[in-house]
Amino acid sequence: MYKNLAAALAAACFFSPVFSQTAAAGKALQAEPVKAGFVYVSPITEAGWTRQHDEGRKAVEAALGSQVKTTFVENVAEGADAERVIRDLAATGHQIIFTPSFGYMEPTLKVAQDFPHVKFESITGYKTAPNVAAANARYYEGRYLAGIAAGRMTKTGVAGYVAGFPIPEVLQGINAFTLGMRSVNPQAVVKVVWLDVWFDPPKERDAAMALFNQNVDVIAFHTGSTAVMAAAQERGKMAVAYHSDMRRTGPDAQIVAVTHQWGAYYTQRVRAVQQGTWKTATVWGGVREGMIRVGDFGPRVPAAVQKEVLAAQKAVGEGRLQPFRAGKTPVRDNEGREVITPGQALSDTQILQMNWLVEGVQGKVTR
Known about the structure:
Elements: H1 2-11, E1 14-15, E2 34-39, H2 49-64, E3 68-73, H3 80-91, E4 96-100, H4 105-114, E5 119-123, E6 132-137, H5 139-153, E7 158-163, H6 168-184, E8 189-194, H7 201-212, E9 218-222, H8 227-235, E10 238-243, E11 254-260, H9 263-275, E12 282-285, E13 292-295, H10 303-317, E14 331-332, E15 338-340, H11 348-352, E16 361-362
């Protein structure tokens, strides 16, 4: 399944979105507000994946005011439940429906066939149709930057990583984080624990605690709750927040946050429906497009480290720094095979097909 995912994404025509906040000239606005629906895979908590998408929904309301009416349904399981909820939104007059979870892709496509006049946005999906667009972000760019911060802050040289599933998107993040960490701390290692679930706070916490017992003093995660951050706060360790700023959960633990910014994209797509200009597309945006941002430093991070990370973020946005580019020596996976040739960078196709863990990672890709 994951090989098919990577191949399809690689074959897609990715473009860098420009999120315009102005109406196209000559386009008359609809008299009635656009009805936009959002389906969430977990509850809306104070921070995390679902919170960031709901912040995007709120940004649409703030930008369009009375020209839009939004609806959301939270904690919808992937599969049959998702299809039922998406179908209900389509049947009740919603003109555009956002489905931000990979497991919503197939239910979205199925419903879209029965509602050809409704527009659908499959977030983290890769399949499109005339009325289904797909969008994702280059999360790995933020991971590399967070790795720089972790590499500067660790005392033990051992980081932990709590991960959901070994799909390319997650492997990209682990590898970029490790490369960023080792760019400033060459002997650093990263220990990975796989959970086989996206959102399970008790399981996330247990994994973090187990890693802290293995000399880990800084931890990152690719899961949906704040449980890992809370565990770091409890144990007096350091953590990289993901999806959202989590300083409320870990005021002393958080060193930096990799946040996802969906508001501009969501607003642009709703406005396109309003103006009759919506077209299917496949978007993969990162720091340059404003979809990924690193910042929200914790109080223990020295100003010099903050400055270094922000300078690297600027370089990524300007294309001067690419996480998956080798220097004078090759990049090898953790089994010793060369995966990036000296002086070369991975193509988007190669990044999207990633199925290895980089040197310095203690763990295996399990299927």
